[in-house]
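can u do me a favor
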Protein backbone atom coordinates (compact mmCIF):
# COMPACT_ATOMS: atom_id res chain seq x y z
CA UNK A 1 0.00 0.00 0.00
CA UNK A 2 1.56 3.29 -1.09
CA UNK A 3 0.49 6.81 -0.26
CA UNK A 4 1.90 10.28 -0.21
CA UNK A 5 1.56 13.85 0.84
CA UNK A 6 -0.61 16.29 -1.11
CA UNK A 7 2.18 17.40 -3.49
CA UNK A 8 3.72 13.93 -3.84
CA UNK A 9 7.19 14.84 -2.54
CA UNK A 10 6.83 12.37 0.36
CA UNK A 11 5.85 8.79 -0.46
CA UNK A 12 5.35 5.98 2.05
CA UNK A 13 4.88 2.29 1.33
CA UNK A 14 3.70 -0.25 3.93
CA UNK A 15 2.97 -3.98 3.51
CA UNK A 16 -0.80 -3.48 3.70
CA UNK A 17 -3.51 -2.04 5.92
CA UNK A 18 -2.92 -2.23 9.69
CA UNK A 19 -5.06 -4.45 11.93
CA UNK A 20 -6.61 -1.32 13.44
CA UNK A 21 -6.40 2.44 13.17
CA UNK A 22 -6.21 4.82 16.13
CA UNK A 23 -7.95 8.18 16.09
CA UNK A 24 -6.87 10.30 19.05
CA UNK A 25 -8.41 13.54 20.29
CA UNK A 26 -5.26 15.07 21.81
CA UNK A 27 -4.34 18.56 20.61
CA UNK A 28 -1.57 17.37 18.28
CA UNK A 29 -3.71 14.73 16.54
CA UNK A 30 -6.70 17.04 16.22
CA UNK A 31 -4.70 19.92 14.80
CA UNK A 32 -2.71 17.82 12.30
CA UNK A 33 -5.65 15.66 11.20
CA UNK A 34 -3.84 12.53 12.36
CA UNK A 35 -5.45 9.11 12.05
CA UNK A 36 -2.75 6.57 12.79
CA UNK A 37 -1.77 3.24 11.37
CA UNK A 38 1.20 1.56 13.02
CA UNK A 39 3.91 -0.73 11.73
CA UNK A 40 7.39 -1.84 12.77
CA UNK A 41 9.83 0.76 11.34
CA UNK A 42 11.46 -1.89 9.15
CA UNK A 43 8.11 -2.41 7.38
CA UNK A 44 7.81 1.25 6.38
CA UNK A 45 9.54 2.44 3.22
CA UNK A 46 9.93 6.22 3.08
CA UNK A 47 10.77 8.01 -0.16
CA UNK A 48 11.54 11.72 0.15
CA UNK A 49 14.49 13.98 -0.49
CA UNK A 50 16.31 14.87 2.73
CA UNK A 51 15.41 18.55 2.39
CA UNK A 52 11.68 17.89 1.91
CA UNK A 53 10.85 16.67 5.42
CA UNK A 54 10.62 18.90 8.46
CA UNK A 55 10.32 17.66 12.04
CA UNK A 56 8.30 18.63 15.09
CA UNK A 57 9.06 17.02 18.45
CA UNK A 58 5.88 16.40 20.43
CA UNK A 59 5.37 18.28 23.69
CA UNK A 60 5.95 15.15 25.77
CA UNK A 61 9.08 14.44 23.66
CA UNK A 62 8.04 10.85 22.91
CA UNK A 63 7.82 11.13 19.10
CA UNK A 64 9.07 13.21 16.20
CA UNK A 65 6.24 14.13 13.84
CA UNK A 66 7.27 14.61 10.20
CA UNK A 67 5.69 16.99 7.69
CA UNK A 68 6.31 17.82 4.04
CA UNK A 69 7.99 21.25 3.76
CA UNK A 70 6.31 21.88 0.43
CA UNK A 71 2.62 21.16 1.11
CA UNK A 72 2.59 20.83 4.92
CA UNK A 73 0.99 17.37 5.04
CA UNK A 74 1.69 15.35 8.17
CA UNK A 75 3.07 12.03 6.96
CA UNK A 76 4.43 9.98 9.85
CA UNK A 77 6.09 9.89 13.23
CA UNK A 78 9.19 8.17 14.51
CA UNK A 79 9.83 7.25 18.16
CA UNK A 80 12.12 9.27 20.42
CA UNK A 81 11.40 7.80 23.86
CA UNK A 82 8.34 5.84 22.72
CA UNK A 83 8.94 2.11 22.18
CA UNK A 84 11.26 1.79 19.16
CA UNK A 85 9.32 -1.09 17.59
CA UNK A 86 6.44 1.08 16.40
CA UNK A 87 6.20 3.82 13.80
CA UNK A 88 3.06 5.79 13.06
CA UNK A 89 1.87 6.67 9.57
CA UNK A 90 -0.96 9.11 8.92
CA UNK A 91 -3.63 7.00 7.20
CA UNK A 92 -4.89 10.11 5.43
CA UNK A 93 -1.95 9.88 3.01
CA UNK A 94 -3.38 6.65 1.59
CA UNK A 95 -6.48 6.30 -0.55
CA UNK A 96 -9.45 5.74 1.77
CA UNK A 97 -10.55 2.73 -0.29
CA UNK A 98 -7.37 0.90 0.83
CA UNK A 99 -8.25 1.10 4.54
CA UNK A 100 -12.00 1.77 4.79
CA UNK A 101 -12.61 -1.75 6.14
CA UNK A 102 -10.13 -1.37 9.05
CA UNK A 103 -11.70 -0.77 12.48
CA UNK A 104 -11.01 2.66 13.96
CA UNK A 105 -10.40 2.81 17.71
CA UNK A 106 -11.06 6.21 19.28
CA UNK A 107 -8.49 7.15 21.92
CA UNK A 108 -9.08 9.83 24.55
CA UNK A 109 -5.60 11.35 24.46
CA UNK A 110 -6.97 14.73 25.56
CA UNK A 111 -7.64 13.36 29.05
CA UNK A 112 -4.18 11.85 29.55
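np, heres the sequence
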Amino acid sequence: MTGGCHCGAVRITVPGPPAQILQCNCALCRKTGWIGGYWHPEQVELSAAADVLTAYVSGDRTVTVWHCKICGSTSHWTPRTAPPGRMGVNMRIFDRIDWRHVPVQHVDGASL
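The longest helix spans residues 27-32. hope that helps!!
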